[in-house]
């Protein structure tokens, strides 16, 4: 096994987990995430899409799936290796659901499209958590050869369908117009063999991380917020593109429930979070050194 300290880790787990050299570097290098958050949410208004009763995490996963399918009808939404936990049967079920979603979209059957997206989101969560894998009835049905597209599509709660419809409307108005030029969905970075990281979208040099959180409750109502971990994750994505493969020049967050897209030039993003000037190359060199990255030949 390669002698790299973060070989089996991913950026998200590092930033959320126990102290490591890399996590401490991010925390000490970018202590002013509050100032960055203030800048990014400055243009955000009131909560536009409430959560009702459905699990907000799954709605967020479904929104991510939906956006990718809407901007690229050839996109494969779950890209993981076949294992004993994620089998060829799971791959086939995902392909069937993706085809059903795109067929429904082309036919203008929005309800069926959202329900298929929800089923794909449920399977996406199976790939992310052993707890979800162990408790997923949909995954069990696939294992036991009891899967059917119609049954899977029927799992979507009515309020989830309503939320996805509203989130789509906002995205088509406030997000999609800026997603032009060369598009990369779920881009993986050249650091992958040293530290896994997969962003949401890079479009024409702009990295956009999508969040579907509710924000925090204030006396006057809910307000948009971005956690320090989410901000460091966006910064991390820009820094892990060591060889400038995606030519990221701007980065930020789309807060889907508020319809707020906030992006900044990468140098400005780093400077706000660091509280002092910081070049992208210098920061990339430091991260590369910590994870043991060796440039491609």
How many discrete domains? 2
Straight-line N-to-C gap:
21 Å
Q: How much helix, percentage-wise, in residues?
A: 40-55%
The shape is globular
Ranges with pLDDT <50 over ≥5 residues? none
Order of helices and strands: HHHHHHHHHHEEEEEHEEHH
| Category by helix and strand content | alpha+beta
Strand elements, count: 7
Number of helices: 13
Beta strand %: 5-15%
Biggest sheet character: 5 strands, mixed
Describe this entry's structure for a reader:
With 297 residues, the chain is of the alpha+beta class. It folds into 2 domains: 1-50 and 177-297, no CATH class; 55-156, no CATH class. The chain is built from 13 helices and 7 strands. The strands form 2 sheets. A 5-stranded mixed beta sheet has the order 1-2-3-6-7. A two-stranded antiparallel sheet has the order 4-5. Strand 4 and strand 5 (221-223) form a beta hairpin. Helix 3 packs across helix 12 (266-274).
């Amino acid at each position: 096994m390669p002698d790299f300290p973060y070989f089996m880790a991913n950026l998200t787990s590092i930033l959320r987990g126990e102290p490591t050299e890399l996590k401490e570097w991010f925390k000490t290098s970018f202590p002013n995430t509050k100032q960055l958050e203030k800048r990014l949410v400055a243009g955000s208004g009131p909560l536009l899409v409430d959560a009702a009763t459905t699990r907000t995490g799954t709605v967020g996963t479904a929104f991510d799936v939906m956006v990718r399918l809407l901007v690229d009808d050839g996109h494969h939404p779950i890209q993981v290796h076949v294992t004993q936990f994620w089998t060829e049967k799971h791959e086939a079920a995902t392909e069937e659901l993706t085809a059903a979603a795109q067929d429904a979209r082309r036919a203008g059957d929005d309800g069926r499209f959202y329900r298929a997206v929800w089923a794909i989101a449920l399977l996406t969560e199976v790939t992310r958590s052993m707890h979800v894998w162990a408790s997923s009835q949909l995954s069990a049905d696939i294992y036991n050869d009891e899967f059917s597209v119609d049954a899977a599509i029927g799992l979507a709660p009515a309020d989830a369908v309503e939320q996805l419809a509203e989130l789509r409307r906002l995205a088509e108005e406030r997000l999609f117009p800026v997603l032009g030029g060369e598009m990369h969905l779920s881009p993986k970075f050249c650091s992958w063999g040293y530290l896994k990281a997969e962003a949401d979208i890079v479009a024409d040099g702009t990295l956009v991380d999508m969040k579907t959180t509710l924000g925090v409750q204030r006396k006057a109502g809910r307000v948009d917020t971005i956690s320090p971990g989410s901000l460091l994750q966006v910064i991390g994505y820009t820094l892990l593109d060591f060889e400038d493969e995606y030519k990221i020049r701007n980065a930020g967050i789309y807060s889907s429930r508020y319809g707020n897209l906030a992006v900044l030039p990468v140098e400005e993003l780093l400077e706000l979070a660091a509280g002092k000037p910081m070049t992208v190359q210098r920061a990339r060199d430091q991260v590369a050194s910590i994870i043991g990255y060796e440039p491609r030949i």
